[in-house]
Amino acid sequence: MNAKRKELIEVVGEGNVLDNQEDLQAYSQDESFARPLKPWYVAKPHNAGEVETLVQWANRTNTPLVPISSGPPHFRGDTVPSVPGAVMVDLSGMDKILRIDTRNRMAVIEPGVTYAQLLPELAKEGLQIPIPMAPRSNKSVIGSLLEREPNTMPAYQWQTLEPLRCLEVVWGDGQKMTTGETGQFGSLEKDWEKGFAQVNPRGPAQADFYKFTSAAQGGMGLVTWASVRCQVMPQVHNLYFVPASEVEDLFDLAYELLKFRFGDELLLLNGWNLATILGSEAGNIKELAGGFPRWVLIVGIAGRDRLPGEKVAYLEKDIAEMAQERGLCLVPFVQGATGREVLEVILNPSTEPYWKMRYKGSSQDIFFLTTLDKTPEFVKAMNKVADSLGYPSSEIGVYIQPLHQGVNCHCEFSLSFDRSNTSEASRMKDLYAKASDELLKQGAFYSRPYGLWAQMAFNRDAQTTDVLKRIKGIFDPNNIMNPGKLCF
After folding, report:
1. Number of helical H runs and strand E runs in the chain
2. Where in the chain is the domain with CATH 3.30.70.3450?
């Protein structure tokens, strides 16, 4: 028996080390244009002790580790090995909900817990968490939060990593740490006995250690549990549309709503993206898109435990008046979709197939941070590049998500294509590269630089690159955690 395989089995158990070619092939690629590369093995730890031992073993044997916690499909290349001889660390088996604390509105979960698993359990306790728009049902909650995927509720986003709070992480050097207010009495259970609920993420001392794991693509360490801030579930929850022919017509209203923190959900979609979310297959998506407005501002209005009906009523009235003052209309439906239908879709995990794959079977996203007022120029630039390469700009999904109470926004373009068509896949690869470069020149900030974006971003910022490499040297001195990603 191969020595490394034997040692892996000693760490995670006989049935939790995979090395057959079919399994390795599945982990060697994803829906992105990352170069396929088979890992050496797949290891599936089931507790923090096994994770800690596994990372220490990787340091002794100089074995690269590539973490993964969500189920397929994957889209960004961050879970595809960049170097040979890697071991995939599949954390999906660590799927325990360790605690739901109704009084303090906190949940403590392991990395394998998915949105489809967590949301129903929170609902039983009258709680919810902000989630990305219609996430994959097998998407890891912790994975999503660590990678700063945008959620639809900017009014409740007090900091960039909200609702992520404390966590336990095994750094790349094999040392385990609990961040924030956790661990003062030795364990989670003892903390809970003393009344601590893992609410404050800052610390130990003056450093926000949990931020070092953020958008690191698993390059700093492995998170074994995290605490998540929850909200009281609404008793009354309605969703409305504000349609417009031009996206900039919606900005003044959006800024006003953000200023007063009116509403819960607040996002902008073009008609094609709304049709893709609601549609079931290609023909249905085209039919829906033909009847939708070019742009819609989506506003969710919720009332919770105190006078929920009255709150929703006055917010509906105020927001309708604010829209009317700007020549806009707040409506409960658009042709082909009601607010209730859209609310049900965007606030729950996507049904199968995943909504971004319904039109042509695969999708490539380009996303970045900017400010709301600059998004029209990015839309024009994206359409121009698409038209120049023969991709129909009318079939580009656009999603604009205000973040952090409107401080900035996530701008995302979704490009559907048929991966099985070699010619179409090749054209998409060219479009992806050319559009990414053009958007960067116009000021797009790739805050989560996957794949080719990493070179674009870090080549333009030598100081940040140097700082990140120094931090990597502290927490992962042997460069075993997902080497080849970011600037590592």
Report:
1. 15, 19
2. 236-346
Q: Which residues of 136-158 are buried (b: 16+ CB within 10 A; e: fewer)?
A: bbbbbbbbbbbbbbbbbbbbebe
CATH T-level assignment (fold) for domain 236-346: Alpha-Beta Plaits (3.30.70)
Q: What is the CATH number of domain 360-441?
A: 3.30.70
225 SS3 class: strand
List the Cα angle 244/250/256 in 5-degree steps: 150
Q: pTM for the complete prediction?
A: 0.95
CATH class of 97-232: alpha beta
pLDDT tens track for 370-418: 999 999 999 999 999 999 999 999 999 999 999 999 999 999 999 999 9
Q: Which residues contact 259 (CB under 8 A, 6 or more apart)?
A: 406
**pLDDT digit string, tens, across residues 13-38:** 989 999 999 999 999 999 999 999 99
Mean pLDDT of 65-75: 97
Question: Start-end ranges of CATH 3.30.43.10 in the chain?
Answer: 3-90
CB 472 within 8 A of CB 484: no
Output phi, psi for 436, to 5 deg.
-60, -40
Residues ≥6 apart with Cβ < 8 Å to 282:
358, 359, 360
Q: What is the pLDDT of residues 258-314, one digit of tens each?
A: 999 999 999 999 999 999 999 999 999 999 999 999 999 999 999 998 899 999 999
